[in-house]
Design brief:
α1 crosses α2. The protein has seven helices and ten strands. α7 links the parallel β9 and β10. By secondary structure, the protein is α/β, with parallel strands linked by helices. The structure holds 2-amino-2-deoxy-6-O-phosphono-alpha-D-glucopyranose. The site of 2-amino-2-deoxy-6-O-phosphono-alpha-D-glucopyranose has 14 residues, from α5. 2-amino-2-deoxy-6-O-phosphono-alpha-D-glucopyranose (GLP) binds next to α5.
Length: 242
């Protein structure tokens, strides 16, 4: 595991964008796993800048997002599809048919999970996966549990996640109670993983996840077992590290 401590959010975002730009330059048809949340916004801005500067071409790339809320439409401003359109997809030349997010509005959610997992396999898996880190150690929406969920599945969100994500909704009762998320097994199959954490609110969980025991109670700790993980933190998320 490679841990990079950036001097601030902007440097963290630039380093992460470089990892993705490098992956696209090495293989223009690379398959990227993408994440939502506040943390990756700066990285997406850097990628958009590079596209506008003519140094990055997404026309052969494929993306699979980690997760999506259940029961909200892709046009809802709180959906992850909307977030991705706003922060990345509408600004770059990715082909719409190459963009994938789970459909949280599917009539048969279990079937949707199976098809999402199949679509990733048909694309020959994920070359580079971006992750954020929940305050409770979740990755995607894999919440603390007594075992690691393997494949894409429907999850009941933890109360701490509902509270953390309520900042995006009018009230916490508007936050969906369920989501579809890639499983820990899906994430661990990615050939390369880049995890970002920013701010002092993440300092404790960064230490527990990457310097504590591997346990499903801290889902991100499983990344210690992956052979190509780069954790990029800014200075405030690194304050609890020796
Ligand atoms: C959500 C997402 C996660 C993300 C987490 C942290 O719950 N499902 O993928 O990593 O939030 O978000 P933030 O970057 O806003 O702290």
């Amino acid at each position: 595991m490679n841990i990079v401590i950036a001097k601030d959010y902007s440097e963290m975002s630039r380093i992460a964008a470089n990892e993705f730009a490098h992956a696209i330059h090495a293989n223009p048809s690379c398959v990227m796993g993408l994440a939502t949340g506040s943390t990756p916004i700066g990285m997406y801005e850097c990628l958009v800048e590079e596209f506008r500067a003519g140094t990055l071409n997404f026309s052969y790339s494929t993306t699979f997002n980690l997760d999506e809320y259940c029961g909200i439409a892709p046009t809802d401003p709180n959906s992850y599809r909307y977030f991705m359109d706003e922060n990345l997809f509408s600004h770059i030349n990715i082909q719409p048919q190459n963009i994938h997010l789970p459909n949280g509005n599917a009539s048969d959610l279990e079937k949707e999970c199976l098809s999402y997992e199949d679509a990733i396999a048909i694309a020959d898996g994920i070359d580079i996966q971006l992750l954020g880190l929940g305050n409770n150690g979740h990755i995607g929406f894999n919440e603390p549990a007594c075992s690691f969920p393997v494949t894409t599945h429907v999850v009941d969100l933890a109360q701490s996640t509902i509270e953390a994500n309520s900042r995006f909704f009018e009230t916490s009762s508007d936050v969906p109670r369920q989501a579809i998320t890639m499983g820990i097994g899906t994430i661990m199959k990615a050939r390369k993983i880049v995890l970002l954490a920013s701010g002092d609110g993440k300092a404790d969980i960064v230490k527990r996840a990457f310097f504590g025991p591997v346990t499903p109670e801290v889902p991100a700790s499983v990344l210690q077992l992956h052979r190509d993980v780069t954790v990029i933190v800014d200075d405030s998320a690194a304050t609890k590290l020796d």
